[in-house]
Amino acid sequence: MNELDNEELVSSFENIMTVFQDDISPFAADICQHLKQQYIRLIGQDGDDDDGESILAAVASFTSIRRILDAISEDKALLSQVESIIYPCLLHSLTADGLDSIEEGIECIVHLVYYGYKDKPIS
Question: Would residue 123 count as lying in a domain?
């Protein structure tokens, strides 16, 4: 994932999610792990040095995480596993520094609460 340009990665991933949405579950945790690492790496870069490209790519990584959550919404065990993986991204999106990704963060939190905790208490 780190070898591709961020725009190419996001575009390719969107196509993969569209075509293989029903088959992504076995790979969801690993993909989210890579996307989380990419998000953390990108938010650590200075956005002024690259005209905000790193921030846009970080938000795109978060969008990809949200799409994975959409695809695995019926598997509560997998949602719980992915929740623990993306927790740092969720926390960052709710800070002043993470305002660029707050919409995606809130969407993910709502998705996790709605689908992951229908029948049990929230973690």
Answer: no
Q: Which domain holds residue 57?
A: 6-116
pTM of the model: 0.83
User: Which residue do the tokens 């919409």 mark?
Assistant: 103
**Has residue 22 got a pLDDT over 80?**
no
Calpha distance 119→48 (Å, rounded)? 45
Structure tokens at 37: 């690492």
Token pair recorded at residue 65: 């995480």
Please check whether residue 88 lies inside any domain of the structure: yes
**Number of domains composing the chain:** 1
Asked whether the predicted pLDDT for residue 94 surpasses 70, the reply is yes
Distance CA 92, CA 76 (A): 24
Q: For residues 18 and 28, what is the distance between their CA atoms, to the nearest angstrom?
A: 14
Question: 54-84, pLDDT tens digit by residue?
Answer: 888 888 889 889 989 988 988 888 998 999 9
Q: Closest by alpha carbon to 88, among 98, 73, 78?
A: 98
